TrEMBL record:
The chain crosses the membrane at residues 21-44, 56-74, 86-104, 110-132, 153-170. Keywords: Membrane, Transmembrane, Transmembrane helix. It is found in: Membrane. This is Cation efflux family protein. It comes from the Bacteria. One of its GO terms (biological process) is zinc ion transport. Its main location: membrane. The keyword Metal-binding does not apply. GO terms for cellular component: membrane.
């Protein structure tokens, strides 16, 4: 019995170590991508790119918090998931503010900066999703991190579509349209993570 318990503990410790390593990698990728996208957004004047950059900042904070609670109880992880839903909601509010500002100050983004940043962002998001996919059905901590990463891939594809739209039409409206779509996605994701965290808080402590 003692041997079985020791083996199970070793497996659990190895799993937590692996989870921490994966979260540390995706955190570093998101922080780097955030800096890239904000710089490109300022250069290009793109609303969708800035929205994606703000999302990456929220994800960086999310992964940092997830990393801190690896191995904690379900109750602790569920409380952290509530924080994650709040961070996603803040990203949505930031997107809404940016959209309103762009509607008042219309402009056509610079395609070259927007397109290059969109491609690099999508590639980084796909790497993060690949790293987190094995944990998508795990506890609320890793599952919510995967949820953020899946949103990032959708956001990456949307920003790339915005870049193509700007190139095709020579106008800023595709960029704003994508920013509105990202806003809807953020709100939907915040609600999903919020519900999952509530389910975790209602579960018996163990």
């Amino acid at each position: 019995m003692s041997r079985d318990c020791c083996e199970k503990q070793l497996v659990a410790d190895a799993l937590r170590k692996q989870e921490r390593r994966v979260l540390a990698i995706v955190l570093a990728i998101n922080l780097t991508t955030f800096v890239l996208m904000v710089a490109a957004a300022m250069h290009s004047g793109s609303s969708s790119l800035l929205s994606g950059g703000l999302d990456n900042l929220g994800d960086t904070l999310t992964y940092a918090v997830s990393l801190a609670v690896v191995g904690s109880t379900l109750q602790v992880k569920s409380r952290v998931a509530l924080l994650k839903s709040a961070l996603i909601l803040l990203a949505a509010i930031a997107v809404a503010i940016q959209i309103a500002w762009r509607l008042a100050h219309p402009a056509t983004p610079i395609f070259a900066s927007l397109g290059i940043a969109a491609l690099l962002n999508l590639a980084a998001n796909l790497v993060c999703l690949r790293l987190l996919t094995p944990y998508r059905h795990g506890d609320v901590n890793l599952a919510s991190a995967w949820e953020c990463s899946r949103n990032d891939v959708g956001e990456g594809l949307a920003v790339l579509a915005a870049a193509l739209g700007v190139w095709l039409f020579g106008n800023g409206w595709p960029d704003l349209l994508v920013a509105v779509a990202l806003l809807a996605m953020f709100l939907r994701s915040a609600l999903r993570v919020f519900r999952a965290s509530l389910d975790g808080l209602k579960a018996p402590a163990g």
